[in-house]
Amino acid sequence: GAVVSQHPSWVICKSGTSVKIECRSLDFQATTMFWYRQFPKQSLMLMATSNEGSKATYEQGVEKDKFLINHASLTLSTLTVTSAHPEDSSFYICSAPRDRKEYFGPGTRLTVT
Amino acid sequence: LAKTTQPISMDSYEGQEVNITCSHNNIATNDYITWYQQFPSQGPRFIIQGYKTKVTNEVASLFIPADRKSSTLSLPRVSLSDTAVYYCLVGETQGGKLIFGQGTELSVKP
Rounded to the nearest 10 degrees, how much is the dihedral formed by the CA atoms of B18, B33, A101, B47? Predict the structure, then answer.
């Protein structure tokens, strides 16, 4: 089946710094990828749609200047959390569609101290 | 995007059949129904997908009535490892975005 990877799997950073998370589709191409955020005991919340070669589309309430998304190739999308704060600590998950299914990455645990 | 409603939690015992029902009253003609499983600190994993009637694979069955306003995920003979959160999603899955509902937290006890 299709595989989506994320890197890193976990990261700890200091408040005010920026963190980049990578999402890769390993065995298929994805013109679209999605980024989600999940807080403990809550459901996944869609943050944005990443479009290869064009600007990302952000969901209402998600700050596009804080969560920078770049989809530079058909297999890679990156999410950069800029000027991270403790409230940005969360589990970030990406996904890519293929064959009418959504394939999810393993997630990245971000902790901001 | 069709909104989904599921029970927040369910309890079961090993070896039992578990049925989780999802309501999606405003499902659109082009929408498919897809179920995902999520373990703690992992990304969701595809379980099964259907459009109408019944679909069965090696891990589950999906029952969809004619009006498609609901669907039922059936897990036969659950084990402890089936303890997870199960999400029902409805939408056009050709690159269309998915909006997750609250999911159903299934707890399987010995």
Answer: 0
Chain A residues lying within 8 Å of B89, measured CB to CB: 102
Q: How far apart are CA B35 and CA B49, in angstroms?
A: 6
Closest among B86, B59, B76, B78 to B12, alpha carbons compared: B78
Compute the nearest-CA separation of A112 from chain B (Å).
17
The confidence score (pLDDT) of residue B93 equals 59
Q: Which of B95, B75, B91 is nearest to B4 (CA)?
A: B91
For residue A10, the cross-strand partners are A109
The whole-angstrom distance between A83's CA and the closest CA on chain B is: 24
Q: Give the pLDDT means over successive 10-residue stretches in chain B (110 positions).
A: 89 97 92 95 96 95 96 97 96 74 96
CB pairs under 8 A between A and B: 58
Token pair of B54 as six digits:
């019944």
User: What does the alpha-carbon distance between residue B70 and residue B60 come to, in Å, rounded to a whole number?
Assistant: 17
